[in-house]
Backbone:
């Protein structure tokens, strides 16, 4: 029961705090691609892989007061910050969650910008393509982001290292 | 004349209760409709188990797919000659609109959950695999099937084309809201689509709405909001879906134990149970086949499978109460124990269902570039996000829209011989709020 909610709670508990909805989406997607057992369904949207299910589940966790959402006005947009509450921790304590490697991977992801995570998530979305085609696809679906060769190189290295953590 | 330009000598029309007529002039579209993979959609209901609540909801994915095609056809007609619109993309848009739901299977939401499938992946496989649909698309030009698949996957380079089929105000939603409203018989879900089509404007990478058309869009958003709560999230439909999901879990479990001998070998399900579903196996499974098995599984020796199938086929649904995991977690754990002790397997008969378990989405302003919102085109050429300009949309965009329900079989509880356990279970369940009989509420 509510196992998928509990997995997300585990994520928030380990992450301590996550800033930004887009960043949250990309973090969970990347963790899913690293074989961590998040089951939210992602589709490709304008800004890369996005899960409506994840958005709604986070909204449910907020409504249950398991996580706290803080909204910050950044003049031309709002930014959201998420953290686990005491009620959330009590809920989580009732589940025996074993997600090996979660802590290390979250630490790697947290330090990155949402722009970079969007690039990583997009490259992972097309990971069935050979590298050259994958890079080409990123430029095709995200022409406005104008990712540089250096950023792409950094993303390739990052994907290799976060996948390494897996093994 | 090239196949892609070939027109039927006489335009074909499908009589349609929502759009009055669906017009087909392109040979390619006519051939796609006749393809077996598209005809299969006639045997898959658009709304799965919703007909348990709204008996009229028997319409199919075939009806809906034609409807989406027709809306896109009308949008393109209005776009012709406008800046940013490239009419070379016309046939691509029409094909993608027609085929966007091609990978849906029977009761696809439950099947996807239990067997970890993704209908979008199957849409891609059907379009790109060895199918009649693929053959037709490749006749248009080499690589055309891939383009259609990319539009549907939202990874096509021209985002304007993608947004016609898939955005927060797209042909898909405009069709299903009206069609579902029509077939369920509810009075919500109606909006002035003609007006919206007239105020849609193509810009570089998306479709936007002329600011003067804002009220028509407000009406559309309100319809969407009403339909979610009144139709898509209806708790009785969810009760049927809970049972359906549990049947699939049970059948899979029995198959995996290897000790259970099905009286009728579940041939059509085996690849689903083993997690290796080939395209031809996927295409064979439709609602007729699923119903056939459910009908016969009512005679199987396994008590749980038999009971769940009997409930599903005869609409003997679970009852439900509202459930708050924050306040009632301890009670739920006690209930779980009590059900187990009483011999009612809680894995199948005590189910929490959350709104996030359902496949429908709400309008979201897409803050922090989470997803692309609806943009209004202001008279000075600026774009404004809809909820920042419309009080009505803003008021429902911020609403908390989640709920959790606890489903269980009241009749099994009533027949428990142990009065003490029965009383305690009832105390917990009915102490959580009004008991609702899913068999009676409409």
Residues:
């Amino acid at each position: 029961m509510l196992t998928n909610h509990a997995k997300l709670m585990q994520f928030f508990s380990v992450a301590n705090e996550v800033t930004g909805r887009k960043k949250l989406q990309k973090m969970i997607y990347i963790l899913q691609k690293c074989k961590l057992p998040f089951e939210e369904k992602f589709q490709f949207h304008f800004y890369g892989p996005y899960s409506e299910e994840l958005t709604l589940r986070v909204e449910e966790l907020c409504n249950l007061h398991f996580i706290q959402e803080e909204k910050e006005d950044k003049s031309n947009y709002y930014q959201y910050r998420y953290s686990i509450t005491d009620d959330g921790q009590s809920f989580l304590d009732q589940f025996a969650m074993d997600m090996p490697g979660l802590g290390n991977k979250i630490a790697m992801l947290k330090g990155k910008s949402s722009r970079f995570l969007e690039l990583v998530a997009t490259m992972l979305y097309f990971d069935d393509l050979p590298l050259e085609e994958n890079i080409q696809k990123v430029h095709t679906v995200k022409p406005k982001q104008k990712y540089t060769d250096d950023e792409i190189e950094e993303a390739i290295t990052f994907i290799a290292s976060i996948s390494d953590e897996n093994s | 004349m090239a196949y892609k330009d070939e027109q039927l000598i006489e335009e074909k029309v499908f009589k349609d209760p929502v759009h009055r007529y669906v017009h087909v002039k392109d040979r390619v579209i006519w051939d796609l409709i006749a393809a077996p993979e598209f005809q299969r959609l006639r045997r898959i209901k658009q709304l799965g188990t919703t007909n348990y609540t709204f008996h009229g909801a028997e319409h199919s994915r075939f009806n809906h797919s034609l409807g989406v095609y027709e809306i896109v056809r009308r949008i393109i007609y209005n776009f012709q000659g406008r800046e940013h619109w490239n009419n070379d993309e016309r046939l691509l848009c029409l094909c993608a609109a027609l085929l966007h739901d091609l990978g849906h299977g029977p009761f696809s939401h439950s099947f996807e959950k239990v067997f970890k499938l993704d209908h979008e992946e199957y849409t891609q496989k059907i379009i790109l695999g060895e199918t009649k649909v693929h053959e037709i698309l490749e006749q248009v030009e080499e690589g055309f099937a891939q383009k259609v698949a990319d539009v549907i996957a939202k990874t096509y380079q021209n985002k304007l084309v993608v947004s016609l089929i898939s955005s927060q105000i797209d042909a898909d939603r405009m069709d299903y809201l009206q069609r579902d409203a029509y077939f369920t018989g509810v009075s919500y879900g109606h909006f002035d689509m003609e007006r919206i089509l007239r105020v849609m404007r193509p810009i570089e990478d998306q479709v936007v709405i002329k600011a003067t058309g804002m009220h028509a869009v407000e009406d559309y958003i309100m319809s969407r909001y009403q339909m979610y709560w009144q139709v898509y999230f209806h708790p009785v439909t969810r009760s049927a879906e809970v049972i359906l999901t549990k049947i699939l879990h049970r059948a899979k479990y029995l198959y995996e134990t290897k000790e259970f001998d099905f009286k009728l070998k579940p041939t059509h399900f085996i690849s689903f149970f083993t997690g290796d579903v080939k395209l031809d196996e996927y295409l064979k499974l439709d609602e007729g086949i699923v119903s056939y098995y459910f009908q016969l599984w009512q005679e199987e020796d396994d008590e749980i499978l038999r009971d769940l199938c009997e409930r599903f086929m005869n609409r003997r649904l679970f009852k439900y109460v509202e459930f708050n995991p924050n306040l009632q977690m301890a009670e739920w754990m006690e209930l779980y124990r009590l059900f187990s002790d009483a011999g009612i397997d809680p894995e199948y008969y005590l189910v929490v269902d959350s709104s996030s378990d359902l496949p429908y989405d709400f309008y979201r302003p897409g803050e922090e570039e989470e997803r692309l919102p609806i943009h209004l085109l202001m008279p000075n050429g600026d774009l404004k996000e809809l909820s920042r300009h419309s009080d009505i949309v803003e008021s429902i965009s911020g609403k908390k829209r989640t709920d959790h329900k606890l489903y269980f079989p009241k009749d099994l509880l009533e027949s428990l011989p142990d009065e003490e356990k029965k009383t305690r279970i009832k105390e917990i369940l009915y102490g959580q709020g009004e008991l609702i009989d899913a068999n009676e509420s409409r």
The radius of gyration of chain B is 24 Å. DSSP finds 23 helices and nine strands in chain B.
